[in-house]
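Dissemination and training. As part of the outreach component of the grant, students in the summer workshop were shown how a complex can be specified as a set of sequence lines and then modelled as a single object. The example used during the hands-on session is reproduced here so that future cohorts can follow it. Participants entered these lines:
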Amino acid sequence: MNETREGDGETREADEGTRETGEVVVLRYGHRPGRDDRMTTHVGLTARAFGADRVILPDNAGQSAETVRGVTDRFGGPFGVELREDQKAIVRNWEGVVVHLTMYGERIQDVEGEIRAAVRADDGRAVGDRGGDARDLLVVVGGEKVPWALYERADFNVGVTNQPHSEVAGLAVFLDRLFEGEELDREWVDADRRVVPEATGKTVVDADDRGRGDTERDDGDAEST
Amino acid sequence: MNETREGDGETREADEGTRETGEVVVLRYGHRPGRDDRMTTHVGLTARAFGADRVILPDNAGQSAETVRGVTDRFGGPFGVELREDQKAIVRNWEGVVVHLTMYGERIQDVEGEIRAAVRADDGRAVGDRGGDARDLLVVVGGEKVPWALYERADFNVGVTNQPHSEVAGLAVFLDRLFEGEELDREWVDADRRVVPEATGKTVVDADDRGRGDTERDDGDAEST
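and obtained this result:
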């Protein structure tokens, strides 16, 4: 399971023909197999659901990668999942902006505007809109202790609260604020199925079915993968 | 560890003398010991960090309760942690508004204003401001499969995206939107220690130390409890 498959990220770039700028990538830094499996899976699923383009997981997190790929296959993308062993080098050599989420960092409410400005293209294109001279953004989410060099390399060390809580919670709120909620309206492509939002119900339809007819009851536990 | 200690919640109410309205309480519905320990702990820590007043955990989640109480002791409150076995009854008998977070629910961006209005006091007091005739809010976060009765009892079934991701991510974004970010500025009382937000550093000071002198290096892994 520890193969380094480039996955959907590379497929998408190949489809589009050119490398575009303005990509938002989440890097899970460190992973303890067994103990961290669910947290790492949830980091990957949260990155996907809240609008990142790709997640990079440590190469010993193959099981989490498979789970996230499976969700992307069923519920759509584009979303890339990569397994890489060179976490330090990815951070060191990143050509865009590096944000490190840590409870010791500057307050999200104080720096979120500055972060958006740092990645925004000169033509005013917002973060997440690809192309132009927008800068790529790497969001680093710690697992095990992260090296001091990461604090120094990061353009922004950001505290989503300065309280101990959860790297998954921090990532979700960071992305929701980064995209100013626009990630909630994104459309998913190449999905097999689609949840129909409703006041009382659990309705899942074929992704190409715009009506409500052909419903399917899905696993109620799908959220707690 | 499975004692039903009412904990800080009751202490706080006793301190204040009267039961106030407008409380925001998170209920973790279901818990599988071992498998769910970290997720349940993160639900509790996220509820605390993002402005809820209390978390109610299933009575088999004693270990998670101890961890959340320990963080509250060190980093401050007020925040209540309760272990209760009567999850169904808590939901059924709740006298205020019940929100159930589920990927099948209505879109958060469509209903968040309506939820704030449903709990708001007639004098316009915002959610989280206690007193007056504000209504209490119960936020139910599913673990294991939740019963259909919960979908029916909930005043709002809410999808923080209609994608599979993480109950911790959903709770964090829900609370951040519910409180419109104001939870990020809350002050903590009775804390032993306080993180000093900074661009590059890991500085923790005594909670009553407003300066930067007497610093202590804390465990860098504190966020991934």
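The radius of gyration of chain A is 18 Å. Students were then asked to discuss how this feature might be tested experimentally.
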